[in-house]
């Protein structure tokens, strides 16, 4: 039983070690562009990947499952994958906890105006600002999946006024749920702090643009922890410069690493993190990965299965 590991972002040796503890019989092979180390392609039954080379996975005739090293699967293109092989994305409690922290931290940053206090500190200005109550602060989460629903529930526990938007209708206790194109304008109109936790699909690409930003109330803030192309960069800069949007926290970008000449780096109303909202940690992520391998070996499908037509 062999697994092919292919990722430029993840440490193969760390993954080899943690997988060996869970599945001692697993033969761990690391992708190399020339095919060295891979051995006989017929041995490969599992592929654990982030951004594999186009078409590369079609070379393995006995592949049983493709396991994503990330929650998002926009690094995979259905056209490049072998037909009929299940693809599972990563759902890891450690990844979920990391995202929860990121969303709560930046929500509180805007809610409690800590950016303004940092600026006042730099100017040695002693001035208290009015303090709003969480009950009156409206936070809107785009995407109510594993990460969005978790963040929504924890913000609700902090007594924020939380809404969410998804493709299909949802019921989450304490969260006002909107869905579909018809629900978007209402959702945005009620959102002072907008958190994007959508998957990147043709429908969600460019969703944070001049039109949707204008639907947010004056002074709203943006937190994008999903994917860079959800945002139309120039539209966001314009909305920040006009003052309609007070600030944005961006973890993800069209090009990563963010090019050094990109306007986001120097923008006074933008906080940046380097795709670090929640980093996949092999020590926790190995459990769902190993569980999926066991499931497939037992004749079951890996979970959660990706609908490659929908793109998530
Ligand atoms: P899920 O697949 O569990 O959830 C996706 C959610 O988005 C679902 O609620 C889905 O609706 C909704 N959605 C999808 N398409 C649309 C649409 N067209 N209109 C409205 N809602 C839509 O994903 P996760 O929560 O696990 O992850 C979300 C994303 O977060 C990942 O795809 C990834 O890009 C990003 N991510 C970023 C990380 C970082 O460090 N920056 C780390 C991990 C993930 P429905 O429920 O109806 O299907
Ligand atoms: C993911 C990511 O999708 O790290 O898991 O962005």
Q: Which sequence of strands runs across the widest sheet?
A: 8-7-6-9-10-11-12
The number of distinct structural domains comes to 2
Proportion in β-strands: 15-25%
Q: H/E series, N to C? A: EHEEEEHHEHEEHEHEHEEH
Shape: elongated
Which ligands occur here? NADPH dihydro-nicotinamide-adenine-dinucleotide phosphate, oxalic acid
End-to-end distance, in Å?
Answer: 28 Å
Assembly context of the chains: single chain
Uncertain spans: none
Largest sheet properties: 7 strands, parallel
Write down the CATH class of the largest domain: Alpha Beta
Rg computed from alpha carbons, rounded to a whole number of angstroms: 21 Å
What's the CATH architecture name of the largest domain? 3-Layer(aba) Sandwich
Give the CATH superfamily of the largest domain. NAD(P)-binding Rossmann-like Domain
Secondary structure tally: strands: 12
Overall pLDDT confidence: 97
Per the CATH scheme, the topology name of the largest domain is: Rossmann fold
Counting H and I runs of at least 4 residues, what is the number of helices?
Answer: 8
Helical residue percent? Answer: 25-40%
Helix and strand content put the structural class at alpha/beta
Write the layout of secondary structure elements.
Layout: E1 2-7, H1 12-22, E2 27-30, E3 44-50, E4 65-68, E5 87-88, H2 93-111, H3 114-122, E6 138-142, H4 146-157, E7 161-166, E8 175-179, H5 180-189, E9 193-196, H6 210-215, E10 220-224, H7 233-242, E11 245-250, E12 270-272, H8 282-297
Parallel strand pairs: 1-2, 1-3, 3-4, 4-5, 6-7, 6-9, 7-8, 9-10, 10-11, 11-12
Helix pairs in contact: 1-8, 2-4
The structure holds NADPH dihydro-nicotinamide-adenine-dinucleotide phosphate (NDP) and oxalic acid.
